[in-house]
Amino acid sequence: MSRIDGRTPEQLRPVTIERGWSKHAEGSVLISFGDTKVFCTASVTEGVPRWRKGSGEGWVTAEYSMLPRSTNTRGDRESVRGKIGGRTHEISRLIGRSLRAVIDYKALGENTIVLDCDVLQADGGTRTAAITGAYVALADAVSWAQKRKLVKHGRQPLTGTVSAVSVGIVDGTPLLDLCYEEDVRAETDMNVVCTGDGRFVEVQGTAEATPFDRKELNALLDLATGGCTELAAIQREVLAAVLTD
Amino acid sequence: MSRIDGRTPEQLRPVTIERGWSKHAEGSVLISFGDTKVFCTASVTEGVPRWRKGSGEGWVTAEYSMLPRSTNTRGDRESVRGKIGGRTHEISRLIGRSLRAVIDYKALGENTIVLDCDVLQADGGTRTAAITGAYVALADAVSWAQKRKLVKHGRQPLTGTVSAVSVGIVDGTPLLDLCYEEDVRAETDMNVVCTGDGRFVEVQGTAEATPFDRKELNALLDLATGGCTELAAIQREVLAAVLTD
Amino acid sequence: MSRIDGRTPEQLRPVTIERGWSKHAEGSVLISFGDTKVFCTASVTEGVPRWRKGSGEGWVTAEYSMLPRSTNTRGDRESVRGKIGGRTHEISRLIGRSLRAVIDYKALGENTIVLDCDVLQADGGTRTAAITGAYVALADAVSWAQKRKLVKHGRQPLTGTVSAVSVGIVDGTPLLDLCYEEDVRAETDMNVVCTGDGRFVEVQGTAEATPFDRKELNALLDLATGGCTELAAIQREVLAAVLTD
Amino acid sequence: MSRIDGRTPEQLRPVTIERGWSKHAEGSVLISFGDTKVFCTASVTEGVPRWRKGSGEGWVTAEYSMLPRSTNTRGDRESVRGKIGGRTHEISRLIGRSLRAVIDYKALGENTIVLDCDVLQADGGTRTAAITGAYVALADAVSWAQKRKLVKHGRQPLTGTVSAVSVGIVDGTPLLDLCYEEDVRAETDMNVVCTGDGRFVEVQGTAEATPFDRKELNALLDLATGGCTELAAIQREVLAAVLTD
Amino acid sequence: MSRIDGRTPEQLRPVTIERGWSKHAEGSVLISFGDTKVFCTASVTEGVPRWRKGSGEGWVTAEYSMLPRSTNTRGDRESVRGKIGGRTHEISRLIGRSLRAVIDYKALGENTIVLDCDVLQADGGTRTAAITGAYVALADAVSWAQKRKLVKHGRQPLTGTVSAVSVGIVDGTPLLDLCYEEDVRAETDMNVVCTGDGRFVEVQGTAEATPFDRKELNALLDLATGGCTELAAIQREVLAAVLTD
Amino acid sequence: MSRIDGRTPEQLRPVTIERGWSKHAEGSVLISFGDTKVFCTASVTEGVPRWRKGSGEGWVTAEYSMLPRSTNTRGDRESVRGKIGGRTHEISRLIGRSLRAVIDYKALGENTIVLDCDVLQADGGTRTAAITGAYVALADAVSWAQKRKLVKHGRQPLTGTVSAVSVGIVDGTPLLDLCYEEDVRAETDMNVVCTGDGRFVEVQGTAEATPFDRKELNALLDLATGGCTELAAIQREVLAAVLTD
């Protein structure tokens, strides 16, 4: 079976990650998964939220948002509506949890890193692109904090790498990294977040049309694990380059 | 290993489902999973949201909320704070999706059913109890609509049953149906929603402390499938009784 | 004249008060006035709001809310609408004032007690049931605080008891404790809050259809005083039983 | 006993009512009860709220607000805080109910009149001044609507007059029309709304410090009835003058 | 050309400024530019916002609002809508900036003055009347603070006077101080804020219908400068009178 | 005098305008004025807001926003705070007015174009870059609508071009196109919006530190007119290139 954009079922869309996209942020990345483009910045501030003060531990959190015309038809701004929608909340929380899974709070010390993931253009998989890009921005922000001695010597706040990909069953076939058109038609839709060593951080599978059985679930998990491994390799390669401030 | 409350790892807490708990709602249930108590009502209204008008199809949606003192320390009311938190949004959306998975929109016709799940007392697993109880309230509401001829003859809007349970890894052991104390200590936490025939509607696994591998994931899925099968049997039994208006 | 539900004009609906309905709250009660059911919890916290700090005096406040399907047709959640309606505000304030009328702030010390009154099922008189039930929850919370030595020895923070009832004129006849159908048809509607010794804490009378004269007002006050006396006896009786944590 | 401002217990503060204070509004009044000054406008619009369309009946509603520096220390604007407080809600509702008590909806036809009562300077009794002034603005607005034939010929939408006054017990003495200093010290505080023929529209009594008995209640009602009779006379006299547009 | 109200193009409407209009505020003014009436109060509080603490410098800010029926048709209250509109925000900011232009923060010391400008009746030029009136209220508030030694001896917090006026091109003719009817028909509309010595604090010109050229801009600036000079003279004269508390 | 970044006083920063930056929007541009980068999209929808229906005329409006980390320190999201700040409101309104100045509503017909201007990186002059970029996106959106026959044949909805630039006085010297560091130090700050033929659409000058006189104002207007002429030339050049969908 050939996919809408000519990919094989187990093929990712072209992935690009540009570091240093902002002159202000401590870490910043423009990531694209095909036509999905997400701008991720990591902002470091000394200190932690009130409920964590005096613990000696840091904090990492995330906010996700879509620009109004990142989609095919313009959506209202959440700032204008005066409230954040459920989907936005859900994805922001997912990104935050995913990145915290590879953070050693003690090593980070009482510093806070906020990841902002703003979708400039959406074509499916915005949350998985956001997690994958945010990890790179986070890694740059941690390096920045280490250079400025905000983070204590001799202990690495990052305990691993993290990336994410969507998988789904379309017309009975399990596919990796769904674009928007595939996502709309998927019977089952799953987002998987993995560490670089292939373990799971989040598994979120939803039967959109018909419930799925264990065999289908296994096929999807196999695809996702493979995709995350590829993404981890891309992250490593991108981070190998020295970033000049 | 013996659990905090003396259960074996694969044992559910005592489950009770009282139907007809409200004289106003078309379906209503007080469900308890141990000390977790959720009040679920199903409200039927003719007509559908604007974006669905003229489609000939119905709609099912859900709202979840916790009473301020359902927890150990009092939480602020979301109505007083003026906005709904991310967790509430996320769970409301999960309940809605889970129930829509067993609804035939065409058979429901242009009617809307809203499930309200209000947690009276929380001790872990509020979202899974809510889904399991809301299904029973939904079934009663559908019967009500059929008796009043709101729903066309000869076609069943419910395509199956749905129930949910939490599972998690505590001190290295996979456990079924976590109570609050276990939930807080879990390394990995998963909520699984299944149809009565054992297929998956939602799988949401989160590594709270350390990422989990495929083997652990499989152990959790096995436990959850067993738990949902038991819950489906309880639902069937409860619904077998005739409810007198 | 016989009433809709067969009562005499000066007869209360059946009243039940179940204490200890929550395992978390310091005081908790499920109260019913006929088909009206209100869940009242009392939450004790050390400390007082900022404007009262250092005064040596405590504070008592209340929040009232109706579950969306506590009524005949489902109402929107105030948390979803993002603001609290005028009626909710008004009743929350009434409950708070009523309970503060029997509190000795000095004896309570710098502790705060919040009464949450959530209407599970409404059939008229929700605010009067809430006040009557909240008093019992408050009394249990005060006992709890005394046992834990939060409240200083030798001085009782409760200076009396408080209960409330509605009265109204329907088809020219003054009636006690209106159910919803009577309330809708009432020409005049009054809520009266009394202490156990028969004095008034609040008197709120409203001409719904036609203004009322002094004679009608007196008839309503007579009925209400009688009703509150009966409710005070029920409260005393219920509180006489020892509550085992 | 002599009062703070030299009045006898049963004496009103000086009352002034200036009609025609706005060139835009269909009715407008600047009323003062001593140092309390409230600006009341009545705005007529054809049509009624959606829930009343096609009924052939009109609607009257009110909004009360205090300017930020109408009080001794500046209060935050409710528009800036983004929500209306409970007290504001409560008073707006009271004013609306009070005026609706003298409106014949059928005679008004499908027209809406909104009363805006903005407190320019507060010194106790703002709600009672607002009701008393709003009645005069309402009467002018009704005349305006009659002249423009918005209201059908031969039937008077106003079925009577309405005025309001506060009473309270200060140092054991019942007093009429409390100024702010008296209000703060009152053991019991009551707002009474009467029609011009001496019947009650609203009676709202609150024990601020100690519960009150029937005898005290009767003394307060006597005072209030007298005060409202005086206010009704002032309203009649003011309205007797022809207002030139 | 004769204007709607008979003025010449370079003529202001009658201006009145009444000081001491509130018994509570430290400075208060009722200003009218023809039928435009704005009530301005200045509230002094010791201390400054958090971001300015410890700087030794004071702060001045402003809030502008229109009463719902200050205009020809009633507008919704911003408190009821739950948010402040863009126009209100914009004008509040303009008033604040205009008054801060004549404040020496060091001389004011760590005190805050809030100017509230509430439009009682609108007929064009509400923001310019507000600035002109607020200056007088501010001057009185500063005197008040000096008398009470809140402001240190020997240094004047006010570095000059400030006033404002609108100008516009109507049917090709530049006009001073537009009333509402002229404002609606203006091709170009400009608000100019000047110090008493004729320099500019703000110049805000907007082409409503057709862009304007440099010559037109110059003609408008000439008119505005003349108008502000006249207003400064009125302010001086009004402030020359002693205000008795 | 040499400027921070080596420019002469009358020199613009490097300006780049990339068209077609979004695959979804009908017009889209990434514009940079030096390090200030704004992403502008133009969204066309058939129909107009309710208040304009049946007029045969179109509507153009704009929304401006800054990404949280577009600035040197991270700002809160307005969607999270639940309200839009005054500055955002003010700039959105300015952009909308500026673009409407070159729109023939009749020629546009009953279509709406929304311009979204999201600041990706801020270094002074974000509002002027937004207006200049939004014009190009608007021009592309109008062409798109013409090709699809949404806009009637034979009449051009755009009556001219529009661009904007900031000017200010820094250390006594008038400068064109201030970067952030200059903006912070400016005594006077002005934003000027011009049509391509050199006339003014908006002139907004503010004395930040000291009031400015007529001579200074003239110098700033001369600089701004020159800057806008240059920007108009760049716009023309960029639009000359054919954009392939």
Keywords:
PNPase/RNase_PH_dom_sf (chains A, B, C, D, E, F), RNase_PH_bac-type (chains A, B, C, D, E, F), EC 2.7.7.56 (chains A, B, C, D, E, F), 245 residues, homohexamer, RNA-binding (chains A, B, C, D, E, F), 6 helices
Compute the average pLDDT of chain A: 95
Query: What oligomeric assembly is this protein in?
Result: homohexamer
Net shape of chain A: globular
Q: Which structural class do you get from the secondary structure elements of chain A?
A: alpha+beta
**Sheet with the most strands, sense and barrel status of chain A:** 5 strands, mixed
Spell out the helices and strands of chain A N to C.
EEEEHHHEHEEHEEH
Family (chains A, B, C, D, E, F): Belongs to the RNase PH family.
Protein name (chains A, B, C, D, E, F): Ribonuclease PH
Keywords (chains A, B, C, D, E, F): Nucleotidyltransferase, RNA-binding, rRNA processing, Transferase, tRNA processing, tRNA-binding
Enzyme class (chains A, B, C, D, E, F): transferase
